[in-house]
Amino acid sequence: MRTRNAVARDYYGILGVSREASDDEIKRAYRKLARQFHPDVNPDPEAQEKFKDINAAYEVLSDDRKRQIVDLGGDPLAPGGGGAGGPGGPGGAGPFVGFQDIMDAFFGGAAGGARGPRPRTRPGADAILRLELDLHETAFGVEAPITVDTAVLCTTCAGAGTAAGTHLATCEACGGRGEVQSVQRTFLGQVVSARPCTVCQGYGTTIPHPCPTCAGDGRVRTRRSLTVKIPAGVEDGMRIRLAQQGEVGPGGGTAGDLYVEIHERPHDVYSRKGDDLHCRVTVPMTAAALGTRLTIKTLDSEETVDVKAGTQPGSTLRLRARGVPHLRGTGRGDLYVHLDVRTPTKLDADQERMLRDFAKTRGEEVAELTKQGGFFSRMRDAFNGHA
Questions:
Q1: Which H or E run contains 263?
Q2: What's the structural domain count of the chain?
Q3: Which positions bind Zn(2+) 2 (predicted)?
Q4: 62 and 135 share a domain?
Q5: In terms of domains, do 127 and 243 share one?
């Protein structure tokens, strides 16, 4: 069994780094050596002792205060050697570093995320607002006023969260680290684990005197009036993005975006499919047979269209470029007029006679449906028991 010398140990030499090594270089060296000498990988007693030295070296060199003691010629882990607490003493964590650092050595820092205090200033969330528009407004665009309820920067403290003339204070419970450590015994030995500080909620600082307006959040909720420019050609369900008009983040962080979601109201006449419009127009049977001229009122004009003689029910007329303007690019969709041919339901005697004469001239036989001789009349009489 190796024994430790009373003199200050060469922690830089244990990790194989120079005294000018950066924090990242120290961490990379520790991970490499930990993977090589970990007891689960290398059961040799010498490797186990080496692993303890590696952990001790990393504990010291990853702590700015302890590293400064080493640079001054002291040993922060030696009893009375200039460190605030040796192994197992007050403030010390023993020769083993936290479980997170051991996990970092094997998984590249993926387990548990970042260490240290979390920032008070964080980006804000996005917001969404529903905006109802008429077909004419979605087709040709509009500048619409909107009202938004979001969090905005507190003007009293400018996002700092502190009352006037006061400042943030370092958390006494965690010393500004944002986390507190606890010691546990595991199969690896004595392991130190870190948890967010419950006093400062992991921030590392506290607010002794919160801003009276925002209560320390750095933001307040308010109702704002904005004007959103809706481009021509938007469709139902589309969203317009207003950059940084959403929620201001905690601590006065950058505001998120505001999304205005378009909802198009149904139109009394037109239905929309993409950039094309559709409508239905009823024409009399005689007009469909003889031909006629219709005046169609479009979204922005009036158009005259010819209905050719002999037009059949269900026919469609197409008016080019009378639909909705294209959102991207130039031009417009088309307007489709669907024709419903109306057949008269009641005829007087003269009208009926003229239609029968017209049918005869065309060689079309039209059977009369009378009460005595009609087919439906005979069926009715049969059901009623008449011969």
A1: strand 258-264
A2: 3
A3: 171, 174, 197, 200
A4: no
A5: yes
Task: Determine the length of the chain.
Answer: 387
- Six token digits for residue 224: 């704002």
* Coil/strand/helix, residue 317: strand
Residues 233 and 356 placed together within one structural domain of the fold: no
Measure CA of the first residue to CA of the last residue in the chain; give whole Å: 126
Give yes or no for residue 41 having a pLDDT over 80. no
Rounded CA-CA distance 73/95 in Å is 19
List, as residue ranges, the binding site: 154, 157, 171, 174, 197, 200, 211, 214
CA 114 to each of CA 25, 118, 177: distance values in angstroms, whole numbers, following the listed order: 17, 9, 12
**Tens of pLDDT, residues 177-204:** 999 887 766 655 666 677 889 999 999 9
288: in domain: yes
Answer whether 272's CB lies under 8 Å from 239's CB: no
Burial environment of residue 105 by CB neighbours within 10 A (0 to 12, 13 to 18, 19 or more): buried
Phi–psi pair at 382, nearest 5 degrees: -65, -45
Residues 6+ apart with CB under 8 A from 247: 124, 125, 126, 127, 150, 151, 255, 256
Q: Are 350 and 238 in a shared domain?
A: no
Lookup result for tokens 């308010």: 222
Annotated binding residues for Zn(2+):
154, 157, 171, 174, 197, 200, 211, 214
Average pLDDT for residues 121-143, to the nearest whole number?
96
Mean pLDDT within 31-55: 81
- Domain membership of residue 59 as a residue range: 11-72
Residue 275 sits in the same domain as residue 243: no
The residue-averaged pLDDT of 85-103 equals 42
Mean pLDDT of the 354-367 span: 86
Question: What pLDDT shows up at residue 90?
Answer: 34
Lowest model confidence (mean pLDDT) among 69-78, 101-110, 137-146, 150-159: 101-110
Q: Which tokens hold the place of 304?
A: 């005259």
Q: Which residues of 219-253 are buried (b: 16+ CB within 10 A; e: fewer)?
A: bbeeeeeeebebeebbeeebebebeebbbbbbbbb
Q: Which tokens go with 82?
A: 């200039």
